[in-house]
């Protein structure tokens, strides 16, 4: 260790610290003649084997620290003086589209100029997304994810002396969003497993799956549903992130014995309509004219493909799939009724 001392201050070099990057510590003597650490200093450009702190000296107003290993042992000296800045900006983490603040504290009538480092160097801030760029507090309104990792500092001028604050980094966490939701699916008992998945973006994402509003032990973005037995249910995924939690749309899953898609007069019964555009019987009316505003209706063709679905059916399906009229034939429907059994039946499409 190297030591320098004056009447009220002392500096101690620790050149082997942090893989020999080195550091130095400044101490001050109080009115009771007790010494206390007031600041640790390191080289702003320090690297391994610099030996910052190999030589030190101090006066009441200045300190000097040597680093003989710097720049392939060409060496370097760093001069420090008392700061006018009482508190520096701090690293800040915010969620996307929320506000972030950085501030400095100075005693006296100072002027301020905030700067940003987007990649390699600091430049004065002039864009409108910032406010307070010439005050002691910088505000970023509705921070976008594109400025994640930007660095900020304030240039403070007091009594003709210009000084840079320490550097603070902004971390902007992306909001949690789901881009792809799980889809309705059906299979025969003994068939291939049904895969449900979500695609989401955000920060520190985790996944929770529910079947019929009850948590199941799945924690990845995709789940595999076995088809060993007859089964049905509504599945959804809750995606948790640093900034928000988002729930996917529900996917209804049916696993039945082969051939059970032709359900005959089961619960909902068999209905007929003729969507030929003559203004009569052109839309499918659910049995007894029921509507299902809070439940999900799914219509399948005879090979188990979803040809229509609605979360709020209002007796308005016109017998089309992706804009194309279906041929004459029989399809089946399932209504997933909350808190009750599934209502199911068949629909005959006839053209006169």
Structure in words:
The protein has 352 residues and is an all-beta fold. Helix content is 2%, strand content 48%. The protein contains two helices and 35 strands. The strands form ten sheets. Strands 9, 12, 13, 16, 17 and 18 form a six-stranded mixed sheet that branches.
**Which value, in Å, is the CA radius of gyration?**
35 Å
Q: What is the share of helical residues?
A: under 10%
**Quaternary structure of the protein:** single chain
Total strand segments: 35
The main β sheet shows up as: 6 strands, mixed
What is the structure about, briefly put?
This protein has two helices and 35 strands.
List key phrases describing it.
6-stranded mixed sheet, 2% helix, 352 residues, mainly beta, 2 helices, 48% strand
Topology record:
Elements: E1 2-5, E2 9-14, H1 17-20, E3 23-29, E4 35-41, E5 52-58, E6 63-67, H2 70-73, E7 76-80, E8 85-87, E9 92-95, E10 100-103, E11 105-106, E12 111-117, E13 122-124, E14 130-131, E15 137-140, E16 151-158, E17 161-164, E18 168-173, E19 177-180, E20 185-188, E21 194-197, E22 199-201, E23 206-211, E24 214-216, E25 222-225, E26 231-240, E27 245-247, E28 251-256, E29 269-273, E30 296-300, E31 306-310, E32 320-321, E33 324-325, E34 329-336, E35 342-349
Parallel strand pairs: 9-18, 20-28, 29-35
Antiparallel strand pairs: 1-2, 2-3, 3-4, 5-6, 6-7, 8-11, 10-15, 12-13, 12-16, 14-15, 16-17, 16-18, 19-22, 21-25, 23-24, 23-26, 26-27, 26-28, 30-31, 30-34, 32-33, 34-35
């Amino acid at each position: 260790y190297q030591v320098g001392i004056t009447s009220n201050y002392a500096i101690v070099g620790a050149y082997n610290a942090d893989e020999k990057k080195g550091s130095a510590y400044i101490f001050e003597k109080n009115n009771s003649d007790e010494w206390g650490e007031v600041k640790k200093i390191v080289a702003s450009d320090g690297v391994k084997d610099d030996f910052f702190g190999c030589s030190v000296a101090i006066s009441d107003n200045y300190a000097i620290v040597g680093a003989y290993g710097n720049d392939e042992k060409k060496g370097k000296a760093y001069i420090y003086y008392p700061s006018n800045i009482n508190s520096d900006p701090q690293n800040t983490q915010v969620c996307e589209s929320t506000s972030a603040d950085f501030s400095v504290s100075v005693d006296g009538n100072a002027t301020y100029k905030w700067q940003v480092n987007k990649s390699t160097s600091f430049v004065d801030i002039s864009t409108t997304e910032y406010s307070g760029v010439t005050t002691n507090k910088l505000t970023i309104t509705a921070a976008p994810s594109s400025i994640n990792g930007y660095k900020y500092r304030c240039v403070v001028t007091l009594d003709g002396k210009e000084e840079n604050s320490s550097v603070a980094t902004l971390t902007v966490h992306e909001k949690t969003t789901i881009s792809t939701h799980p889809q309705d699916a059906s299979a025969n008992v003994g068939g291939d497993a049904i895969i449900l998945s979500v695609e989401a973006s955000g920060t520190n994402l985790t996944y929770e799956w529910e079947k019929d509003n009850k948590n199941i032990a799945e924690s990845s973005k995709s789940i595999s549903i076995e088809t060993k037995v007859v089964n049905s249910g509504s599945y959804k995924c809750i995606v948790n992130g640093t900034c928000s939690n988002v729930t996917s749309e529900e996917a209804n899953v049916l696993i039945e014995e082969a051939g059970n898609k032709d359900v005959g007069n089961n619960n909902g019964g068999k209905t007929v309509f003729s969507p030929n555009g003559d203004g009569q019987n052109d839309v499918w009316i659910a049995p007894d004219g029921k509507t299902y505003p809070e439940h999900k209706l799914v219509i399948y063709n005879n090979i188990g493909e979803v040809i229509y679905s609605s979360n709020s059916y209002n007796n308005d399906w016109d017998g089309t799939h992706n804009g194309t009229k279906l041929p004459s034939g029989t399809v089946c429907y399932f209504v997933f009724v909350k808190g009750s059994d599934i209502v199911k039946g068949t629909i005959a499409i006839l053209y006169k």
